[in-house]
From TrEMBL:
InterPro entries the UniProt entry points to: BaxI_1-like
Region annotation (Disordered) ranges: 1-20
Protein name: Putative YccA/Bax inhibitor family protein
Species in which this protein is naturally found: Saccharothrix texasensis
Biased amino acid composition, Polar residues: 1-15
Keywords: Membrane, Transmembrane, Transmembrane helix
Transmembrane segments: 58-76, 82-102, 111-129, 135-154, 166-190, 202-225, 237-254
One of the Pfam families matching this protein, by short name: BaxI_1
C-alpha cells in the first residue's frame, strides 16, 4: 500500500488476491465480482469491489447529511445552543475516529456512528455561519462536492498520477498546514495574531492553499481505496474507505465554509 496522509489507511492488511482486481482506474465491466481474475482473499470472504466502496461512502455521507440538517435546523431555530451540539459532536467523532483508526477490523456501525457525530458537529457550525451569512451553507456544500467530483474525474482520467513523489509532497504539505494552524491557535491564546485566520489577504491565501491540499488528498484516498480493490481485501474494508473519504470531506467542507465567510465579511 502506498503511503497516505489519511490515518484511516495506515494499517491495512497486505494479504489478499493477486492484485489484478479492477478498481477506480479500470472499466466498470471489469469491476464486477464475476470478472475477478485473481485468487480470492485468504479469509474466504468476498473481495471488495468498487460498488462496495461507492455504496458504503454514499451511506456514510447520507447519515452525515441527515444529522447535519437536523443539527443546523435546531441551531437556526434557536432550540439548541450551537456549542451544545458542536462540542459533543466533535469529541464523540474524535474518539470514534481514533477507535476506527487503531481497530484492526473495520466496523460498519462504528463508521456510521462517526458519520452521525460529524454531521451533528458540522450542522451546528453550519447553523452559526448560516445565521450570520444567509446562503453560505449551500455554497459550501456545492463547493465541497464540486471539488470532490473534480478530483474523482482527475483520478479516473489519469490527468494527475499518484506517484511516490506526489504522495510525499501531499503528506508534507498536510503536515506543514497542520503545524501552521496549531501554531496560529497557540499564538492566538497569547494575543498574537499570525494573520492566518483573521479574514485578511493572508488568511484568504492560506485557506486557498489548505483547500488545494485537501483536494489533492482525495487522490491519495482514491488510490488507497483502489489498492484495497487490487489487493482483494474483504468487502468489509469498504467501510474503511468510506471513513477515509469522509474525514477528508469534513476537512474540505470546513475550510471552504471558512473561506466563503471571508468574502462575505465586508
Amino acid at each position: 500500500m502506498r503511503t497516505t496522509s489519511n490515518p484511516a489507511f495506515r494499517n491495512l492488511p497486505t494479504s489478499g488476491g493477486s492484485g489484478n482486481y479492477a478498481g477506480f482506474g479500470q472499466p466498470y465491466e471489469a469491476q464486477q465480482y464475476g470478472g475477478y481474475q485473481g485468487a480470492p482473499p485468504t479469509t474466504g470472504e468476498r473481495p471488495i469491489t468498487i460498488d462496495d466502496v461507492v455504496t458504503k461512502t454514499a451511506t456514510t455521507l447520507g447519515v452525515a447529511i441527515l444529522t447535519g440538517f437536523v443539527s443546523a435546523w435546531l441551531v437556526l431555530s434557536g432550540q439548541v445552543a450551537p456549542f451544545a451540539l458542536a462540542v459533543p459532536g466533535m469529541l464523540i467523532g474524535l474518539v470514534l475516529a481514533l477507535i476506527i483508526i487503531f481497530k484492526r477490523t473495520p466496523s460498519g456501525p462504528m463508521v456510521l456512528a462517526y458519520s452521525a457525530a460529524e454531521g451533528v458537529f458540522l450542522g451546528a457550525i453550519t447553523g452559526v455561519f448560516e445565521s450570520i451569512f444567509p446562503g453560505i451553507a449551500w455554497q459550501a456544500i456545492l463547493g465541497t462536492f464540486g471539488v470532490f467530483g473534480a478530483m474523482l474525474v482527475v483520478y479516473k482520467t489519469g490527468a494527475i498520477r499518484v506517484t511516490p513523489r506526489l504522495t510525499k509532497w501531499i503528506i508534507g504539505a498536510t503536515v506543514g498546514a497542520a503545524v501552521l494552524m496549531l501554531g496560529n491557535l497557540v499564538m492566538g491564546m497569547f494575543g498574537v495574531n499570525m494573520g492566518l485566520r483573521d479574514g485578511g489577504t493572508l488568511a484568504i491565501v492560506f485557506s486557498l492553499v489548505v483547500i488545494g491540499i485537501a483536494a489533492f488528498s482525495f487522490l491519495l484516498d482514491f488510490e488507497a481505496a483502489n489498492e484495497m480493490i487490487r489487493g482483494a481485501l474483504p468487502a468489509k474494508y469498504a467501510w474503511l474507505a468510506a471513513f477515509g473519504l469522509m474525514t477528508t470531506l469534513v476537512w474540505l467542507y470546513l475550510e471552504i465554509l471558512r473561506l466563503l465567510s471571508y468574502f462575505q465579511n465586508d
